From TrEMBL:
The gene is Vangl1. Residues 19-35 have a biased composition (Basic residues). This is VANG1 protein. Belongs to the Vang family. It is found in: Cell membrane.
């Protein structure tokens, strides 16, 4: 236990040093660029920004200072502390208030739709019962006696209403998975159809039965049975429109992440654009690897370093021949680009070498740690039950032997922002509980997994924006392109229709499979 506490303090100490070193780096950079930031702040007041700035989705910018750090940066870094000042502008206040208003509007729209559907469903189920009970309440003495057939219709109405209730609960009463920008067209059409249908039945009932006080009670019950039968057919229509229509694949969509170009293909049926976007997002969290902005900073810093080394001198004086300066800049950049592929090659080779070395050290450390915990289990079986270790204590006991190797590997592969010490301990105790091998424990860290594998607070984007030239309630068509945007990246979706395939049949006679062996006199056969 003491070893686990020491390791925890050491692990948190690395994060402490990292935060202070990044703060010192940013303070020095802000001192050198203070005049430029003032001018930039004056110019931003006259610019309309469509997308407001926000914090990164992952909430970690540790990779920005990763390039200039050595392997022992935690022991050799000087920590500089200071006072942090935070300010908020008028634009930020307006943006926060707008987000609150939008969230309130979405909640009101959601609850309004649920309320309307619930009231209409209650009206549908109470209407047949009311048709049967109102004559018994209003003119009971004038009704004709209900015979055996009429009493059998009571049983039919009861069971049909029960079946309709179960089917309605299974089809409509589900937890919503998302808030769509527009209403679901088919569901709205069904609600309007049910309302008109029930209203017409009530209108006929009021004019022909209530006003005239019809005494044929068996006919009234049959009228209620016909209403329940029609409602069952409408429920069948709802199943066809809402569930069965979209099952047959008709379109193939290609989803590309704008930052790193990772892509996937999916097959969709007849869906609207907004529902297709919802299906794409559900598959994105499952199939795409987690978005890591730290992997994109290396190429950006390399390009900035190459452009920063270019200098253009004008011998004719300032303000003369600007087009010549641009051509000289382009020519110098082209010459430098011809030699930059060598730098890229050696950088990638060196990075792969360091990753392989860190990976080998991590695998050896984890295997030794798991061997130790197996030995502990064999020894603990001989002790008293009160001295047995639970999986959490066992994980804390073996974690110090692998903590440094794991931390270095995660830092080298730029995954440190996704794995906290608590999440690693939980995963380790889970593996120990289920008697999993070291390879099963390392699978989460050696290969970047899907987005759902990581902590919800680190990857989940609460709001996506659907950008489409077509109406989002219109159906998918060949060639449609729409974009799903979040704070850090966007998903570009290209829709292609599955082509019509024509198959022909060709019959082969089984007697045609006969062959002749031709022998020559020179052969040995």
């Amino acid at each position: 236990m003491s070893a686990a506490m020491d390791t925890e303090s050491t692990y948190s100490g690395y994060s402490h040093y990292s935060g202070h070193s990044k703060k010192a780096h940013r303070q020095g950079r802000d001192r050198h660029k203070s005049p430029r930031s003032k001018d930039g702040s004056r110019s931003e007041k006259s610019v309309t920004i469509q997308t407001p700035p926000a914090e990164p989705l992952l909430g970690n910018d540790a990779s920005r200072t990763e390039e200039g750090q050595d392997d022992n940066w935690g022991e050799t870094t000087t920590a500089i502390t200071g006072t942090s000042e935070h300010s908020i502008s008028q634009e930020d206040i307006a943006r926060i208030s707008k987000d609150l208003e939008d969230s309130v509007g979405l909640d009101c729209k959601r609850y309004l739709g649920l309320t309307v559907a619930a009231v209409l469903g209650l009206l549908v189920f109470l209407t047949p019962i009311a048709f049967i009970l109102l004559p018994q309440i209003l003119w009971r003495d004038d009704l004709e006696p209900c015979g055996t057939v009429c009493e059998g219709l009571f049983i039919s109405v009861a069971f049909k209403l029960l079946i309709l209730l179960i089917g309605t609960w299974a089809l409509f009463f589900r937890q919503p998975k998302a808030d769509l920008p527009r209403v679901f067209v088919f569901r709205a059409i069904l609600l309007v159809l049910i309302f008109l249908f029930v209203f017409s039945y009530w209108l006929f009932y009021g004019v022909r039965i209530l006003d005239s006080k019809d005494t044929n009670y068996q006919g009234i019950v049959q009228y209620a049975v016909s209403l329940v039968d029609a409602l069952l057919f409408i429920h069948y229509l709802a199943i066809v429109l809402l569930e069965l229509r979209q099952l047959q694949p008709m379109f193939t969509v290609k989803v590309v992440r704008s930052t790193d170009g990772e892509s996937r293909y999916y097959s969709l049926g007849h869906l609207s654009i907004q529902r297709a976007a919802l299906v794409v997002l559900e598959n994105y969290y499952r199939d795409f690897t987690v978005y890591n902005p730290a992997l994109l900073t290396a190429s950006k810093s390399r390009a900035a370093k190459h452009m920063a080394g270019l200098k253009v001198y004008n011998v004719d004086g300032p303000g003369n021949n600007p087009s010549g300066q641009s051509r000289a800049m382009i020519a110098a950049a082209a010459r430098r680009r011809d030699s930059s592929h060598n730098e890229l090659y050696y950088e990638e080779a060196d990075h792969e070498r360091r990753v392989k070395k860190r990976r080998a050290r991590l695998v050896v450390a984890v295997e030794e740690a798991f061997t130790h915990i197996k030995r502990l289990q064999a020894e603990e079986q001989q002790k008293a039950p009160g001295e047995m270790m639970d999986p959490r204590e066992a994980a804390q006991a073996i974690f110090p032997s692998m903590a440094r190797a794991l931390q270095k590997y995660l830092r080298t592969t730029r995954q440190q922002q996704y794995h906290s010490m608590e999440s690693i301990l939980q995963h380790l105790s889970f593996c120990i509980t289920n008697n999993m091998t070291p390879k099963a424990f390392l699978e989460r860290y050696l290969n970047p997994g899907p987005t759902l594998q990581y902590d919800r607070d680190r990857w989940f984007s609460k709001q996506w924006t659907l950008v489409s030239e077509e109406a989002v309630t219109s159906g998918l068509q060949d060639g449609i392109v729409f974009v799903l945007k979040c704070l850090d990246f966007s998903l570009v979706v290209n829709v292609k229709k599955i082509p019509f395939i024509k198959l022909s049949e060709e019959f082969i006679d089984p007697k045609s499979h006969k062959f002749v062996l031709r022998l020559q006199s020179e052969t040995s056969v």
